[in-house]
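FW: tagging you since you asked about this chain on Friday. Here's the raw sequence from the shared folder, copied in full. Didn't touch anything.
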Amino acid sequence: MCSSVHAIFVLLSYERSAIEVYECCDVSGIGTVPVGRVETGTLKAGMIVTFAPVNVTTEVKSVEMHHTALELASPGDNVGFNVKNVSVKDIRRGNVAGDSKNDPPKETEEFKAQVRMSSLYHGKQHSAVCLTGLFKPVIHTLST
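HL: got it, structure written out here
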């Protein structure tokens, strides 16, 4: 039996907007630009978003994909979005942005899970390996 895995966990559902932040840049003349992938929901200019787990709320000024302005970013889009009055020091890789008006993403203290990973050794699959002990993975999941 595996021991419990404790980790920071961001709760989201499929209807809510969720944008995973890959990096955050300070673009001269523009400001703070988080870059990430729209996992669920949509992202558009004028939307008020909350970043979890840092609990920073701000307005999206613009959304771009490959240097082209977008009216609406959909799931699967890799985008950069300009945000108001937020420093690059406030947002980091791994944060999740979501619509603050529609049950924004939030952090939970802990959860328990049984994690099994299949290992490969010289190209051959071996039995499942169980993660135990002090291993604390970063886990992104969607819940309904």
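FW: DSSP finds no helices and eleven strands in the chain.
HL: agreed, and The mean pLDDT is 78.
FW: great, closing this out.
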